[in-house]
Amino acid sequence: MIFPFLLKAVIISLSGVMAPGPITAITVSKGAENPKSGAMIAIGHGVVEFPLMILIVVGFGRFFELNWVKVVIGILGGLFLLNMALGLLKNVRDFKIGSLDQKYSPFQSGIVLTIANPYFLIWWATIGAVLITGAYQFGLFGFIAFAIVHWSCDFIWYSFLSSLSFKGGQFFGKRMQKVLFIFCGVFLLFFSGKFIYDAMLIVF
Question: Would the pTM of this model clear 0.85, i.e. be above it?
Answer without folding.
Answer: yes
